[in-house]
Model the fold of this input.
Amino acid sequence: MFDFVRKHTKIMMMLMFLLIIPSFVVFGIDGYSRMREQGEAVAHVGGQEIMQGEWDAMHKEESQRMRASMPNLDVKLLDSPEARYATLERLVRERVLAQAADKYKLTTSNERLAQELQANSVIASLRLPNGKLDMDRYRQLVSSQGLTPEGFEARVRRDLSARQVEAGITNSGFASATVADVALNAFFEKREVQVANFTSADFAAKINPTEAELEAYYKSNQTMFQTPEQVNIEYVVLDLEAVKKTIAISDADLKSYYDQNAAQLSGNEERRASHILINAAKGVSDADRQKAKARALELLQAVRKAPDSFAEVAKKNSQDTGSAANGGDLDFFTRGAMVKPFEDAAFSMKKGDISEIVESDFGYHIIKLTDIKVPKQRSFDELRPSILTDLRTQQAQRKFAETAEAFTNGVYEQSDSLKSVADKLKLEIKTADSVMRNPLPGATGLLANAKFLAAIFAPDAIEKGRNTEAIETASNQLTAARVTKHTPASTKAFAEVRNVARDKVIAVRAAELARKEGQEKLAAWKAAPASAVFPASVVVSRDKGQNFPPQVISAVLRADSSALPVFVGVDLGSKGYAVVRVNSLVPRTAPTEPAATQDRGQYAQWWTDAENQAYYGVLKERFKVAITASKPAPSTEDALAVAAR
Done:
């Protein structure tokens, strides 16, 4: 689509997480919030309260899904105050839509619920070879997440009803090609510019501060020269691996599991088929669909009379361009690889059979089963290690909630030591020294977990020496800690930080000189444009910034273009100053018709999203939404991003 989106995938993914992704939850984890106090109210929607515990539980769910879908994602992004607050805003949105659905009587039928569950890929993976749902695994899956099948289905039903609230907006949004082109042409407009940089580094050599100036700066900025507050801690971690170590499984149980699941454990049956497809996609008229079906019946009669001609008939008549050239051959496939009607037919046939007409979302199929590959059954000895691992994992998941409750109670009831709970649950007491309130760059795991760090620096932990509460530090992981040594923050002696203070004074003064020089040049060049000295011109745009800072690009695109050329000054903060001459406008390069169509579609989606957000604003007022939790202040990077828009 847009080059900017393609080149900044990671940024866009995080923006999606924080701002766009709807909070439809496939599998909720209500788990341990029930074992803990819900805390204080953090928001109010239509007279109902949202509690701190609900907020924590939802953020845990979303973080788990993000980690599962993007394993390389920096977990610190998920634990940031901004990410947590975005979760609260989505939770509020869920409640608003749920209350609106209830008020406007928007219900979900059993048929619609069934369609949604059938389309769910997680549930589809639980199907047995005969196509039926493995109810035991289904119950186990939802129960491990703190839900019953009925509770899960009720939750899906509620979410589907809530979707209907916004459907009138999202399903009817559009933007005319003319309006879209005007906006897109402006958005992608380019400007030819020349940029003169006055960088702080160029002025640093001119600065030679006195000792008195350094000492004055040191005294005025002592927080900058502090040794941070630190603690030494001991801690215990309860996770699935710890629970697994307590589980013993007998050979009899292993053998019983093998006997019941030997076929599935040995691998999946594969089938090879060829097909002839006559297209009749969703949305075609009934007349066209009947015409396609009649043509498929004609071909079925032909191949039934001469089965050996199937490949030739497929080459000449199949409308599946991917397989027609190969006589309709689809190679080997397992369950789940094909659309359900096709799969059901193929796995019910015998080798050499030709099916009846099979209707799918693509049209009408005639299937010939050409081969069956049944996996060789593996022996108990071959599968014993993997069965042992699977059973331990399953039992650990079931036992974790019970053990977690014992862990939570244990660290609270004997709050002056972790030894008792560690001995009872066979956990190792670990230690960490020189832990600070804010994680060090590159820190991972517990020592990068904001919630864990906040707990160990809480007054109860530092002043009273008590265990922290059991804290969820990851999926299926609880941690409790105890402070063994506390070192308060202290200001370093001037002699120790003199060189650091000198570098900072030079940086501040150099930036001031660069700014002064840049502002003087800007005034002089405006007064006498012919005297301006600039490097060669370049063309910049929103999606091609030519490595200029975002402040420069923002200033260039905001500059008054009614009387070009125009001079613009840009303060770059600690990096200096820039003077820009905007010489001319460069129209957007005309896109190809397919690209233009795609861009217009994206613009229409943006417009629809804006309309939907406005409608949600109306609903928030109607249901008297109030968020009482403090919204985190924007970071420097956020402020720059806003300024660049």
Q: What stands out?
A: The first strand starts at residue 41 and ends at 45. Residues 230-250+382-488 form one domain. The chain has four domains: 18-175+605-644, 189-225+494-586, 230-250+382-488, 268-373.
